[in-house]
Amino acid sequence: MRIAIASDHRGVHIKAKLVQLLSAAGHQVDDKGTHGDQSVDYPDYAAMVSRDVANGTAERGILICGTGVGMAIAANKFSGVRAATCYDEVMAEICRRHNDVNVLCLPGDLFGDRPVADLVRVWLQTDFESGRHLRRIEKIASLETKPNG
């Protein structure tokens, strides 16, 4: 699978581990940065990954910031991107099964020593259930083309 990944300065340590893990599992990983702990603006990195997912250059995306929430907000501004912040394996599985989430947002500050690999593995291996959920995803997609108001 082609996966684009990025983080801000608060997610660099987790991103580095995930790049190694994903590459070792045979995925094509495009690391969009950042690569240091100097403060950067997370929307810039969310945009790089979200563009790749939206245009099909990447099949999935992973974004990491302090809470994961800022990255999810920015990523969801892109048509065709369905981003969610996940803190555990249950959320990762359900967001794939029910919402076909294609961009996983993670909290760099909230995992501590808890391993994140299992959460990412569950998210990558879980299929979208379709059925009644497809109707809802289509309704979400239709909102992307409607003017505000």
Helical amount among residues, as a percent range? 40-55%
Element order, helices and strands? EHEHEHEHEHH
| CATH homologous superfamily designation | Sugar-phosphate isomerase, RpiB/LacA/LacB
Between the first and last Cα atoms, what is the distance in angstroms? 38 Å
CATH architecture: 3-Layer(aba) Sandwich
- What oligomeric state do these chains adopt? single chain
Number of strands: 5
Across the major sheet, the strand order is 2-1-3-5-4
CATH class: Alpha Beta
How would you portray this structure in words?
The protein has a five-stranded parallel sheet, sandwiched between helices. α2 crosses α3 and α4 packs parallel to α5. It has a single domain, classed as 3-Layer(aba) Sandwich (Ribose 5-phosphate Isomerase B, Chain: A), CATH 3.40.1400.10. With 149 residues, the chain is α/β, with parallel strands linked by helices. It contains six helices and five strands. The mean pLDDT is 93. It is globular. Helices cover 44% and strands 16% of the residues.
